[in-house]
Amino acid sequence: xEITKRHFLNKEISLTDLLKSAYRLMFxxxxxxxxxxxxxxxxxxxxxxxxxGHEAIQLxxxxxxxxxDFVSPYYRDDSILxxxxxxxxxxxxxxxxxxxxPFSGGRTYYAHPSLRREDFPKIIHQSSGxxxxxIPTTGIAMGMKYKEETGIADNLDDKxxxxxxxxxxxxTEGEVSEAFQMAxxxxxxxxxxxxxxxxxxxxxxxxxxxxxxTEYMQGFxxxxxxxxxxxxxxxxxxxxKECIKIIxxxxxxxxxxxxxxxxxxHTSGVRKEWYRDDLEECAKNDPLIKLRKTLSEFxxxxxxxxxxxxxxxxxxxxxxxxxILAEDPKPEDAYKHDFAPTPITEEKGDRSxxxxxxxxxxxxxxxxIRELMTKHPEALLYGQDVGLRLGGVFREAITLAAQFGEKxxxxxxxxxxxxxxxxxxxxxxxxxxxxxxxxxxxxxxxLNQLFTEVSRSYYLSNGKWPVSMILRVPIGAYGSGGPxxxxxxxxxxxxxxxxxxxxxxxxxxxxxxxxxxxxxPNPVVMLEHKGLYWSKIEGTENxxxxxxxxxxxxxxxxxxxxxxxxNRQDKPTLTIITYGMGVYWASNAAKEFDNQIExxxxxxxxxxxxxxxxxxxxxxxxxxxxxxxxxxxxFAQSLAARISDNCFRHLDAPVKVVGAKDLPxxxxxxxxxxxxxxxxxKLIKEIEQLLKY
Length: 693
Ligand SMILES: Cc1ncc(C[n+]2csc(CCOP(=O)(O)OP(=O)(O)O)c2C)c(N)n1
Ligand SMILES: [Mg+2]
Fold this sequence. Notes:
Layout: H1 15-38, H2 40-43, H3 55-62, E1 70-72, H4 78-84, H5 88-95, H6 134-149, E2 162-167, H7 174-186, E3 190-196, E4 199-200, E5 203-204, H8 205-208, H9 213-217, E6 224-229, H10 233-250, E7 254-259, H11 279-283, H12 287-297, H13 302-325, E8 358-359, H14 361-375, E9 379-383, H15 400-404, E10 409-411, H16 416-428, E11 432-436, H17 444-454, H18 457-460, E12 469-475, H19 490-494, E13 500-502, H20 507-519, E14 523-529, E15 545-546, E16 560-563, E17 574-578, H21 582-590, E18 597-601, E19 604-606, H22 610-620, E20 623-630, H23 635-647, E21 656-660, H24 670-676, H25 680-692
Parallel strand pairs: 1-2, 2-3, 3-7, 6-7, 9-10, 9-11, 11-12, 12-14, 13-14, 17-18, 17-20, 20-21
Antiparallel strand pairs: 4-5, 8-15, 13-19, 16-18
């Protein structure tokens, strides 16, 4: 007999039938663990962990979720997956990294699910970083609440909930606290399930925590906690039922602290016999033995139980044989789903409508977002100080909270990880979050989420979960911003695959690219040079442009021709490839030469308009790549290498990278700042050198 999918959703199910279903699933989990151990030559090719010891609480949860719910299981949660109706065969396809692995198509480890099926609870991409799922999943709950409060939620009898499953040790991580903080603060409809086996691989609870999660939760006002024996299936089922009911109806967060024994290895690679001295003690708490006893107490015949066990054993064996035979991914599959296709492929609309006055860059961004929010109720903006009182430290969001209300434009705590990572969840429920960090210098706490969760979601979910979000980042140095308000970060960002990056240098480009970013189904970082926001710096007047029309849009990956010049017979010429503030250093330097300089503004760093760059280099045979960053190991230096590779036969001189000095930080003293950064004068000297070459 096959395990029938979603059988447990029958609300009229009798207790004995429920227990039999649970036993079938729990016995399946044990059989899987045993099989993986017996067949370890095959199954340990790829690392895996199983739920042995944790099954009761996991099944109790999985069996009660509805298709509108979201759940984020961690790597030990194969019983949650069985509980929601995933078959052993499907699990094994992932175990063996097969093409048909329903979660990732053979891209990621066992029990690292992602699921987007109509009649199943939804699962966003799950990474291996412990605790990292807390923020994205709390983002889901924040999105659910936002939709309800702004009147765009589906009208369902049973409101959806989010569930975040965590190991006990992961709860000591800082990012998990950020998630708890927001769930408590905003009273989000989320259930945290903490499975406490008192192990953090080989480190014991006594070594790594000052309090357990029940005690810890007392510091988070408004997250009610239930502490239970996670091996007692009936207790688990009832507790989960009660919590889910409260969350569905009262829309507030809860936490279940389930105490469980870890009966199997930490993972197939880190084996219990190496370091565990509590195995005998733990075995006494085996949830399967307890459930078997409960079945007897409910007068379920031994023969019936044996039949279940026999059926499960047969199913698991057959599934394993079939999974081994299933096809592997094809090499070309590796290239699928790096980015979701964007509908924005052409420049459209009026860039320079008549009758409008030039507008500073910061306002072009503001007007772009205002238009987007007016048109799209799913668009919202959050970050530090963007709310009503200030509208951003650069006043870049001023008037938005007043116009759209504090539900749609709101302040967050100083939690860059939450600001960035929550967009994964917001996007999963169909929202379009526009978020910001206050300065590029403070993107670092958010970088983990950007890399681990945001950038890889689409690829590792095999195309199921693109993350559509915009992260605005004021960036760049000017006027003694000092070491913590001046840094450039594009080299780090361009090393993260799976995100797009814009770095516009004019108001019109910022507006057009903001629109493209919004309609792009992929994550986009908008780098906005704060020295260009108001065109206050001498020589940056052209950053202020006529504000383009509402429907003006620029596709990513199309460079802008700032200044063109012909290749001349009488004099050498060169092209400057640059972006951001570099556009103005280059434009001002070009005035010192006699029509010898071409300037290409990349506008977007990822994707990059390579063709336009190579075309310009081939035309002039000399090239400077100009950046505000320190040169060594920079984005600019790697672009120079690409130019050399592709244009070698056309070059009359080495490709020159001009940028800041290789120092750890930009000093606050104005003379020191000047010494470190490039500027027009320094660039002129470099141009002279290269033209002489
Ligand atoms: C951020 C991060 N650091 C380290 C690891 C390596 N690691 C994998 S599992 C684990 C222990 C996690 O313990 P816990 O959260 O209690 O879950 P359990 O395995 O006990 O179920 C560690 C340190 C990781 N995956 N992610
Ligand atoms: Mg643990």
